[in-house]
């Protein structure tokens, strides 16, 4: 039976995905809300839609009980009079999703740690209630008006939907190694997807998409050891994310609480990074000086880098801090840059 909810007025579209469209809305109880409208998928039979619709309505009741400051509040879920669509009414997150930030480039380490801590607390709350997220990615991490990160768009992707619609949902990059063979998700596959999400936020879209496609490489195994890191990412972050992405679920973090413990130990140097198709630039302000590192390339064998410091808001001299002596291979450049950032 459909839930009785206050009448909803839909406004501007906020986004769209394989499982529905999201609109800004108003209702008489909660005021400004976000409304996800889910309809029958292309190619979905009437019987399958009826079954999925019943599951969505039942799951909506469970989601409304998942109250936590780092989980987007679900107010209600209902179907329209004709039975053609489902409306999921949620708290409105004025800060939007982290998809836009990811597309613009790498986020600072301290920002990613704060986001990760917030959403892992939310994930722990879901897991403690016996619930899974199944679709953790930058677009499903939201910020409220205060900038606090929350887990959103959760609970409505079942294992059956993952199997049937994973490709059109753009979800393949976040399918854990074991799910490719079993098509059964778990709390540990949520942790895997969170690890992939953190890697994305640390590197930004330009760098991420230049690397190996997870959908093409994860099923073969060993993906965690094939990650290409921006050289300013400290060793502790790399170890944590590789453990989150371990093929062997017994060697992965066993709970969100363990991820929280790992996050609490991480270093967060305040370098900002910008990535383009053929260069990367880092900056770090320390007092009245600005450290700058630039790495550029013309081909796989022609990479160069240089580092210097310059006055910041004052007069003074530019000081050379390091760099390559000539064009060189990518691997050598990465090694030298990693050494520089470790010492910087």
From TrEMBL:
EC number: 2.7.11.1
Highest taxon above the source species: Bacteria
Pfam family for this entry, one: Pkinase
Domain Protein kinase: 8-266
Binding-site list for ATP: 36
Key words of the record: ATP-binding, Kinase, Nucleotide-binding, Serine/threonine-protein kinase, Transferase
GO molecular function: protein serine/threonine kinase activity
Enzyme class: transferase
Catalytic activity, as annotated: L-seryl-[protein] + ATP = O-phospho-L-seryl-[protein] + ADP + H(+); L-threonyl-[protein] + ATP = O-phospho-L-threonyl-[protein] + ADP + H(+)
SMART domains according to UniProt: S_TKc
Keyword Kinase among UniProt keywords: yes
PANTHER family assigned: MITOGEN-ACTIVATED KINASE KINASE KINASE (PTHR24361), PROTEIN KINASE DOMAIN-CONTAINING PROTEIN (PTHR24361:SF433)
Protein name, UniProt field: non-specific serine/threonine protein kinase
Organism classification: Bacteria, Pseudomonadati, Pseudomonadota, Betaproteobacteria, Burkholderiales
């Amino acid at each position: 039976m459909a839930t009785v909810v206050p009448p909803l007025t839909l406004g501007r579209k906020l986004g769209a995905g394989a499982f529905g469209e999201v609109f800004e809305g108003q209702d008489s109880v909660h005021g400004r809300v976000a409304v996800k409208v889910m309809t029958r998928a292309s190619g979905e039979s009437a019987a399958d839609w009826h079954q999925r619709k019943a599951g969505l309505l039942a799951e909506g009741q469970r989601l409304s009980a998942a109250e936590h400051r780092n989980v987007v509040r679900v107010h209600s879920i209902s179907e329209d009079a004709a039975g053609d669509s489902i409306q999921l009414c949620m708290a409105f997150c004025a800060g939007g999703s982290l998809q836009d930030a990811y597309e613009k480039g790498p986020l600072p380490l301290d920002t990613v740690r704060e986001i990760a801590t917030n959403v892992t607390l939310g994930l722990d709350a879901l897991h403690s209630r016996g619930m899974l997220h199944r679709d953790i990615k930058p677009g499903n991490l939201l910020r409220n008006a205060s900038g606090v990160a929350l887990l959103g768009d959760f609970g409505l992707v079942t294992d059956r939907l993952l199997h049937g619609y994973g490709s059109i949902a753009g979800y393949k990059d976040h399918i854990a190694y074991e799910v490719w063979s079993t098509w059964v998700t778990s709390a540990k596959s949520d942790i895997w997807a969170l690890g992939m999400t953190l890697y994305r936020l640390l590197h930004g879209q330009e760098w991420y998409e230049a690397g190996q496609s997870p959908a093409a490489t994860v099923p073969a195994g060993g993906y965690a050891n094939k990650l290409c890191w921006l050289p300013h990412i400290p060793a502790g972050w790399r170890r944590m994310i590789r453990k989150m992405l371990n093929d062997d679920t017994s060697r992965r973090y066993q709970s969100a609480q363990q991820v929280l413990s790992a996050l609490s130990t991480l270093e967060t140097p305040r370098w900002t990074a910008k990535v383009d198709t053929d260069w990367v630039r880092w900056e770090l302000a320390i007092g009245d000086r600005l450290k700058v590192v630039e790495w550029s390339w013309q081909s796989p064998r022609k990479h160069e880098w240089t580092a210097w410091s310059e006055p910041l808001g004052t007069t003074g001299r530019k000081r050379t801090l390091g760099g390559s002596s000539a064009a060189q291979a990518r691997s050598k450049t990465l090694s030298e840059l990693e050494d520089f950032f470790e010492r910087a």
